[in-house]
Amino acid sequence: MNFGFEHPWFLFLLLLVPVALLVLRVTLVDSPRAQLALSAATRCTIIVLLVFALGSLLRVSRSDRVTLMVLGDVSDSVGETAPAQISNFWAQVSAKRTAGAKIGLATFAGSNQPLVAPGNPAVLDRPITRPVPAAETAVERALMFAWQTMPPDTVKRAVILSDGNETVGDGLAAARRAAAHGLRLFTVPYQADVREEILLEDLLVPNEVKKGQSFTVSAVAHATVAGKATFTLYRDGFKIQEKEIDLKPGPNTLTFQENKAKEGLIKYELRVRSAADFFADNNVAAGLVSVAGEPRVLLIEGDERDARYLARALEAENIRVDVREGKGMPGGLEELAAYDAVILSDVPATDLNVRQMSLLRSYVEDLGGGFVMLGGEESFGLGGYYRTSIEEALPVRMRSEKRKDTPGLAMVLVVDKSGSMRGDKMEMAKEAAISAVELLSDRDYVGVVAFDGETYVVSELQSAANRSGIVQNIARIEAGGGTAMYPPMVRAHEMLHTVVAALKHCIVLTDGASQPGDFQGITASMAAEQITVSTVAVGQDIDSELLQSIARWGRGRYYHTADPRNIPQIFTKETMTASKSSLIEEPFVPQVLRDDQAVRGIDWKNAPFLFGYVLTSVKPTARVALVTERGDPFYVSWRFGLGKSAAFMSDAKSKWAADWVRWPGFGQFWAQVVRDVMRTTQHRGAETSITVKGDEGRIVIDTVDEAGNFLNGLKTAAQIVRPDLSLMTAELRQTAPGRYEATFPMQDIGSYLVKIRQSRTADDGSEEVINDYTRAVTVSYKPEYRHLALNENYLKELAGTTGGSYQPAVEDLFKVAAGEEVPVRQRLWPWLLGAALSLFVVDVALRRLDLAQYRVFNHEAQRYG
Amino acid sequence: MTFAQPWALLGFALFAPVILLYLLKQRRRRVEVSTLMFWDQILRDEQTVTSLTRLRKLLSLLLQLLFITLLTLAAARPSFSGGWTGARRVVLLLDTSASMLVQEGGRTRFDIARQKALAVVRGLSLGDTMMLVAVGAEPDIVHPFTDSKKDLQEAIRKMEPTHGETGFRKAMELVRQLPADDRETHVYLVTDGAFDPVELVPPPKTRFAYVKVGERADNIGISAFSVRPLPSSPRDFQVHIELTNDTREDRRVPLELRINGRLTDAFEFELPAGQSIARTLRQFSGEGSEVEAVVDVSDAFALDNRAFAWLPPPRRIRTCLVTPDDLFLQQALATDDDVVLEVLRPEQYSPANTADFAVTIFSGWHPDETPPGNTIFIGSWPDDLGLKARGELEKPLFTEWEHDHPVNQHLALQNVGIEKAIAVEPDPGFQRLASSFGEPLVLLRETPERKTLVLTFGTATSDLPLRVAFPIMIANSIRHLAGEEAGERWSSPAIGSILTAAQCRERAVLGETHLDIRAIHTPGGERIALDQPAALVPVMRAGFYRGETPEGTNTLFAANPAGGRECRIRPSEELPLKSEAPIEMIRKGFRLGFEPWIVLALLGVLLTATEWVLFHRRVIE
After folding, report:
1. What integer best gives the mean pLDDT of chain A?
2. Interface pTM (ipTM) of the complex?
3. Do B397 and A639 touch (CB under 8 A)?
4. CB B280 to CB A712 under 8 A?
5. Which of A213, A680, B4, B118 could form a disulfide with B77 if both were Cys (CB 3.0 to 4.6 A apart)?
6. Distance CA A395, CA A382 (A)
């Protein structure tokens, strides 16, 4: 035992003691000396006692007295018998507490209700009731409350009676903090209290859909007992579907199909009714769906007037269509990004430049856009798309295996190699010639003649099977010299004249005005032998009139391009057109090969005839949904990068689809095609987690590129739509390589739609969007009503983390281990004041009574007297 | 006025004996003298002074009674209602966040805050009780309500600032949750206010006071720092660093990167005034290393000039591959440094010799029965697995996959070519991780006993093994099945968190071995023994936390000083709380610092001393 002072500075008043003794030296009091001495001693003692009281003398000892706080969970998730179980436990604790132990009682749900303050004795003088509302379980608050109210000079114990389903705060963290100050926590589970209950888990709906798109609404219903229940689905408060289902004990999955959502944020709510149910709060699950406006499609049609059939059909299916002619392809990605899908119908590659084709590819691959190419005489290979970016994006190759019944082609390429062709023009011309050679089948013949002032036979007319040799010869052509086009045309005629082939064709390419010659004569001779002649003019210094005339006389086509990069498309288009290998014009009815979103639900048996299609070959991973009666691919789709593309080999206008455009399935088919391929979201490798803890949501996004590298330095923002549809914006902060985090308040019940946008500044200063997608998180009801089973692990961990135990014997709650005693400071000042008062009466008596009559005092008195 | 110990008023009963003693007539003493001449004169004089004597006697009695009154009242411990002496419930919120380590004229802000907190304690009066709360990352009740100034002062003197952020929001929740009390609640915020104002709904009968600490405002520091292994190459790391310049001028700041204490790289950054910049530094290999970033600037807040990170050593997962010929998979597994691989041919397989492996992979072959443990089946599986084959899928595509599932982390599966897969009818327990137009391609079943992953296509019939996604998918799958989720060991526990012994041991893995950690050595030099299951390791200081093993010490994790907001050290000039309703402030004015009984007792001491002198000088009787 030790002593100490709370206010030690008062001890300076002890100086009054010597002062009091000094007074005796000058005293005028004639009392006996012994009496005076006794009186002085008494008075000095009084002064000392009072000064010690002022200094607040403390007795410091160690105590093993326990204060036990009983904390009973009365939240809604615990059974009806919880108050009774708390009462019983309190009775046991009262009966078995050790002498000197203090006990207290409080119940808790979201907040605490003190019932008995820690004390000895402690009497529970009122019934335990459940608060209203009790839709939260806040173990952390209960622990903090217990820790606040326990007397500091006792060994602290708390026992929690609960089902362990914490919904607010972090009880474990609070327990650890309290344990660091010496609190030991015990946990006691409630006895099983099974009740009939059905609860709905989160409603699972897609985050984003397009207007008119079909999707699934599903939920899991947990039932404690088997029974019938009625589930009703509401869309924005209006009942849309109802089902009665026999539930089995445990989880039951329910699904509803929905396709009638209107534009905007649509709230779906599923409610369950059943006779065997206790809580009404958990009978609802809600979810938010962002229904984007009508899909927007860009339809590019070779002849704008032909677009009306398809445009009208799509608009009837709530798809907005912008129609442009062939040369109207957007020149920037931002313009393309405004569309959900792009349809290219019978537009030759020569109407597009190389950059436009690359943009379209990037639109599908990187922006996730949809792309459909329709057939026609200017489409696919016939349109010159062989070896273009567009071919890469499509699920089909332009070069098809030539069918045995198609006629053989003999073709001579007459290529200008004059000095003015140097550079890009020559290279592109060579590439074009090589592509043309590659496109031909083994049964075709090809020859190459180059010219400047002279004529050079680069490759004699020979079977295209010898491709590699021909290609090598073409690669050796070098530019230089003048331009004399007539002799090589004569040479081409000679070459074609000798060969036996059903189709004969000559392509002449030049970039300048030729020396004179009898162009009409040679062309007429060729035409007389069924040899067609097409001309290709490159650049500005050309004799376009002559070249157009040659094409007209030769019953071929005339092309002019200022950009040499377009030459390959012209050559391949010419080659395909001339060979007529990829065009089939015969009536047929498409056959469904495989079920697909695009062909589902259409009455194919009654589909009318189509009158032609383009032959292509399917890429390995493409999905063929429709074929022709000959088995050729007819409708093919695949996923390309983030987007999807499809190829439809016939057209959608009055040429091949003259009967189709009047068929009721026409609109349905095209709407389904567009919805299948169109962009749904922009999402590149970002893992998103939105967690809810208490009244706070936490967004964590990990962003990596396709090569598995982190994407750093992205500007990341989340636009959050609250349940009341108000908006809030949260900036996500980068916290680690590839990781972005933010928190936001989530106090309300309902759905939170989180639209995440990640972007960075491109080299040219523009904003490059990396990710733009939506996630939703729904709090359908308070978590209190979600967990109806005992969370034993939580209770064990809660107790274990403080050195307490799970399900302890009541006696163990009061056991104190060696070294657990706490220091106790007892203030002694009231006792010191009492003693001073008592002594004071003695002091007065010593003064008022004449003690000289007593011998001891008399002797002294005589001596002084 | 009320009395805490009213029974002490019985002390007034002592009036009776004292008055009685004064009423007693003192008997004259008999003394023999030689002459009466002088006594006659005295007796004549006495006739004239009798009334004065009576007055002295009465004064003496009154003083005695006053003394008894003072002490009796003191012992009864009176208290007074009213502003200047009314009992209060006081909550002292003392900021222990990192910004309290800012130097202010040779002392830290916390030193100043401590003195101000002690002054608040001295100002407590009778009936006042105070709760002391340390507001670091989490509010911590350092001392529950007490009227013992000594205990509170001792507790304050023992408090130390942490390296964490300020959690005044939760502290205010604690205030809001205080049980009802008749007394007024006074909340003192002893802080620099260098945090975003906290929203508050003022509780009833509660007043606030802002005890401001600190003046300095300029600081440059590291506001975020972390390292993270790359998903595609878990042995390589990237470093993310954010620097904040909270001064009024642009600054050029040198930064050093140290690994295991050695300088490995140096950088220089331009920091615009008042802004933060984030940078990702180069990748490097260095698992099992301590990484430290140091900003070479001289400012008032030295703590945030250093930051720490730990590159954990890889955990090894024992994996068995049973295959006749899957070289692609073998190669992918061999390149994963975290996998200890053993390859068995089908004829070598028996359930017993794969029992010790964390994961067993069957590719191109499967046993007749599903073995116990975690398994991956590629292309085929036993009949008892619960996956009924119902035909073939030709050229399926990965059209949808669960982006956020750990197995699919960082995967780009678009355009993966698959020649054919098996169309399956899965039992309800299977979760679809990836599908092709609704047809499952990757399935996972998790039960408490084991996890099973199934790929419905073989590696030989797909170009997946040629993609970057393949090794990532295999690595993710193995880690998920083995319960060793990739990636998160690099993260640091937040300052203010308290780790259990089990959590510390979880981090103590070297290769395949779990280290026998006996104690934790904190950056502050403290040793925390883990001999009790309930041992706790508070993470309060930035730096490296090391585990003590019988063989030596191993770094377990790093903790970083709270960055972000704590880097902005400018003190708030106003109470850092905001509310739609008016916040009542504690009124300034006289408050009796002492309890009334002390005043009464002090008067008693002075009275008794004075009375003693007066008596002996015969001023009173």
Report:
1. 85
2. 0.73
3. yes
4. yes
5. B4
6. 16
